């Protein structure tokens, strides 16, 4: 995951800290109950994300967010999709508001890294 961290670093360096912080604070003021999140494509991820900034409902769970992403990419059950936060996979039942309290960056944003994995061994019945 260290290479993916460099992607987060590149993203952060592209915009000054104060500008990011003000932008994320504005999202939270204008959208009560929503939290700013950024999804950064991992080095080996084959899926492209047209928009990488999101304002997610605090009550949304990680599994619900993954389900939404899976539908967007039209993935089959054999295709894996993973969201890393702080170099770990967050629990699927964790709410965005809880993750924001524990893992948000200094600028007030959650930085997710998106990765994928194909299931090479399909089960035969």
How are the SSEs placed, and which strands pair?
Elements: H1 2-13, H2 17-30, E1 34-41, E2 53-57, H3 62-73, E3 79-85, H4 96-103, E4 110-118
Describe the structure.
By secondary structure, the protein is of the alpha+beta class. The protein has a single domain (2-115), classed as Phosphatidylinositol 3-kinase Catalytic Subunit, Chain A, domain 1 (Ubiquitin-like (UB roll)). The protein contains four helices and four strands; from the N terminus they run ααββαβαβ. It is globular and about 40 Å long.
Summed up:
It contains four helices and four strands.
Features:
alpha+beta, disordered C terminus
Tell me roughly what share of residues is in helical segments: 25-40%
Main sheet record: 4 strands, mixed
Rounded radius of gyration (Å)? 15 Å
- Report the oligomer: single chain
In total, how many beta strands?
4
Give the SSE order as H and E letters.
HHEEHEHE
CATH architecture: Roll
Fold-level CATH name: Ubiquitin-like (UB roll)
Tell me the distance between the termini: 35 Å
Low-confidence stretches: 119-125
The CATH superfamily name is Phosphatidylinositol 3-kinase Catalytic Subunit, Chain A, domain 1
In the CATH scheme, the class would be Alpha Beta
Query: What number is the mean pLDDT?
Result: 86
Q: DSSP strand (E) fraction?
A: 15-25%
Total DSSP helices = 4
Give the tally of structural domains: 1
Shape: globular
Structural class: alpha+beta
Provide the spatial order of strands within the biggest beta sheet. 2-1-4-3
């Amino acid at each position: 995951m260290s290479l993916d961290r460099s992607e987060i670093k590149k993203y952060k360096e592209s915009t000054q800290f104060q500008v990011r912080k003000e932008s994320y604070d504005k999202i939270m003021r204008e959208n009560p109950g929503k939290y700013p999140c950024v999804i950064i494509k991992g080095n080996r991820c084959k899926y492209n994300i047209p928009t990488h900034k999101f304002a997610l409902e605090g009550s949304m769970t990680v599994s619900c967010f993954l389900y939404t992403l899976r539908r967007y990419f039209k993935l089959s059950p054999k295709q894996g999709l993973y969201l890393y936060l702080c170099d770990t996979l967050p629990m699927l039942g964790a709410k965005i508001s809880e993750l924001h309290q524990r893992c948000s960056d200094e600028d007030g944003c959650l930085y997710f890294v998106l990765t994928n994995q194909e299931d090479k061994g399909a089960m035969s019945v």
